[in-house]
């Protein structure tokens, strides 16, 4: 697995922990994580992650910061 993908997967795990802690009080946050997860599954791990995946993950992280 590519180191960049490893980093993205770790960031996604942290977001999953935030989601588990807050539940589904913010459906937009839950949907953003779901979109990022699906994009990660479709990604080619032998290449750097596409900009689309990075953007989806950053959007989910922004929503997580708003949750506090």
Task: Explain this structure.
With 68 residues, the chain is mainly α. Helices cover 78% and strands 0% of the residues. The chain contains 3 helices and no strands. The protein has helices spanning 3-22, 27-42, 51-67. α1 (3-22) packs antiparallel against α2, α1 (3-22) packs parallel to α3 and α2 runs antiparallel to α3. The radius of gyration is 12 Å and the shape is elongated.
Strand-helix topology:
Blueprint: H1 3-22, H2 27-42, H3 51-67
What tags apply to this protein structure?
68 residues; 3 helices; mainly alpha
For the record, the count of structural domains works out to 1
Radius of gyration (Å): 12 Å
Q: Which parts are unreliable, with pLDDT below 50 for 5 consecutive residues or more?
A: none
What would the principal axes of the Cα set say about the shape? elongated
């Amino acid at each position: 697995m590519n180191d960049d993908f490893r980093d993205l997967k770790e960031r996604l795990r942290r977001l999953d922990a935030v989601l588990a802690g807050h539940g589904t009080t913010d459906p937009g946050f839950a949907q953003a994580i779901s979109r990022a997860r699906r994009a990660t599954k479709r990604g080619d791990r032998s290449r750097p992650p596409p900009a689309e995946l990075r953007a989806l993950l950053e959007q989910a992280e922004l929503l997580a910061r708003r949750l506090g």
